[in-house]
Recover the amino acids of this structure.
């Protein structure tokens, strides 16, 4: 992941908060993934306008106590691209 | 047990059993007239609202052919407004470019078109319509052009499973995003036609090899789903991920079921014309019948694998053994496994005997079946 890359949700996916599951989920044709807390927080700020650097900045500010947050974010962004949850140009 | 029941997450809305086609593996009940008194628009809107409030997030509109409901666009737009992910499961017959875009405007998320075959001749033999195949291909293109994610579905059986390489090629040429190669599940109409539909083990293996080779050659390409039919396995599927644990089906007449085949079970299921979705899901005897483990018999009762497959499918246990609480006979630990093996032996030897005729899913055949069984 390069700091300038701008990840956005794959156009075939929907991302939303589900109160009944107390979690963010990804919805796609006949399927649903319930996201864990950190995955949900990261995807929630991937709005197709923020760069990787901005995403890291924003989340570091929001969760100052989290150790190694930068590595975790990058690892997740890489996995999310492999899963085709996120795409960047 | 009931105090730990989670909410329904998936809702399958069977809007109607009317359908212009007559597939002999149709998952609708044998008694098609059980769908004649369809819920009206208001009733569906209420059910969708209540199910969404409980937590359902995935919604499938199916049938029969859901497109015959003229209020489909209204139901879609209401559901989408509630936050459902909306799937339309259609044969493509009755679809038009205008309706594809009207549904898009209503907020539909996804259209799945089901095919019978890659060629017109076999498609006609199975569906009873000579025009259906060309219509499906045209509509698949229209769906893709409108920007929907496209899922093509083929129900596999002895007569089309050898076409898997051609099926993959057709799906690729239509730029499908997902291809579901769904082996026939032997309930209802498909069970009536089991000897005529069941492929041989060699056919399954050849199809699986073709799927794996394509996946290896096309990493990151269209997503292919292929599930080996349970008859060829040694353990049953974890049916519906557990009875009444996340799936809710509503029939055209408003009956709430834990799965679309459950209407065949000798159990009273709640009527959503008179009960709320919450009452049906959490409180009804029907939904609580096979929750948890208390209902289990040997060999499931003490089996270390019981929290993996929940004893398999209740509908299959009932249809084959006459006892809905028995272990799914697919399990090699079941005392009834011989019923499955006999069917497999007949399937393996089919090349030596004349093919038995298919019983098509028509209203006339439905009435005959119901009359000859003295009512189901
Ligand atoms: S399986 Fe065939 S007959 Fe049954 S509803 Fe679907 S298209 Fe109609
Ligand atoms: S005995 Fe029952 S619980 Fe055990 S594997 Fe077989 S079906 Fe599943």
């Amino acid at each position: 992941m390069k700091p300038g890359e701008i990840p956005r949700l794959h156009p075939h996916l929907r991302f939303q908060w589900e109160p009944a599951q107390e979690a963010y989920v990804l919805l796609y044709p006949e399927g649903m993934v319930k996201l864990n807390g950190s995955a949900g927080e990261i995807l929630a700020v991937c709005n197709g306008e923020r760069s990787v650097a901005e995403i890291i900045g924003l989340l570091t500010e929001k969760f100052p106590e989290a150790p190694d947050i930068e590595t975790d974010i990058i690892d997740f962004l890489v996995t999310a691209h492999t899963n085709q949850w996120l795409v960047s140009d | 047990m009931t105090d730990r029941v989670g909410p329904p997450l998936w809702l399958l809305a069977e809007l109607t059993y009317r359908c212009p086609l007559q597939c002999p593996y149709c998952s609708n009940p044998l008694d098609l007239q059980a769908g004649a008194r369809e819920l009206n628009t208001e009733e569906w809107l209420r059910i969708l609202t209540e199910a969404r409030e409980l937590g359902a997030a995935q919604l499938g509109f199916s049938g029969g052919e859901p497109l015959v409901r003229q209020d489909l666009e209204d139901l879609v737009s209401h559901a989408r407004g509630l936050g459902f992910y909306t799937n339309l499961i259609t044969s493509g017959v009755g679809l038009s470019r205008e309706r594809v875009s009207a549904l898009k405007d209503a907020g539909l998320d996804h259209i799945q078109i089901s095919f019978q075959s890659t060629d017109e001749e076999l498609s006609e033999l199975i569906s009873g319509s000579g025009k259906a195949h060309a219509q499906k291909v045209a509509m698949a293109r229209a769906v893709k052009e409108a920007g929907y994610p496209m899922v093509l579905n083929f129900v596999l059986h002895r007569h089309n499973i050898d076409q898997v390489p051609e099926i993959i090629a057709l799906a690729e040429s239509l730029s499908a995003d997902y291809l579901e190669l769904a082996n026939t599940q032997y309930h209802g109409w498909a069970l009536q036609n089991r000897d005529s539909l069941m492929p041989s083990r060699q056919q399954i293996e050849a199809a699986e090899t073709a799927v794996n080779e394509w996946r290896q050659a096309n990493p990151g390409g269209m997503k292919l789903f292929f599930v080996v039919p349970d008859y060829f396995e040694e353990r049953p599927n974890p049916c519906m991920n557990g009875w009444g644990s996340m799936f809710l089906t509503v029939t055209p007449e408003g009956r709430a079921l834990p799965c679309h085949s459950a209407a065949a079970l000798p159990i009273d299921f709640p009527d959503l014309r008179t009960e709320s979705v919450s009452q049906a899901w959490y409180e009804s005897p029907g939904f609580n019948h096979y929750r948890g483990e208390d209902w289990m018999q040997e060999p499931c009762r003490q089996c270390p694998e019981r929290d993996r497959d929940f004893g398999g499918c209740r509908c299959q246990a009932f249809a084959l053994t006459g006892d809905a609480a028995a272990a799914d006979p697919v399990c090699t630990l079941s005392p009834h496994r011989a019923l499955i093996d006999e069917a497999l032996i007949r399937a393996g030897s089919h090349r030596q005997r004349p093919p038995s005729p298919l019983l098509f899913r028509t209203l006339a055949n439905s009435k005959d079946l119901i009359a000859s069984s003295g009512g189901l």
Q: What stands out?
A: The mean pLDDT of chain B is 91. The first strand of chain B starts at residue 10 and ends at 14. The beta strands of chain B are 10-14, 58-62, 85-90, 110-115, 150-156, 178-183, 223-227, 247-250, 256-257. Chain B has 15 helices and nine strands.
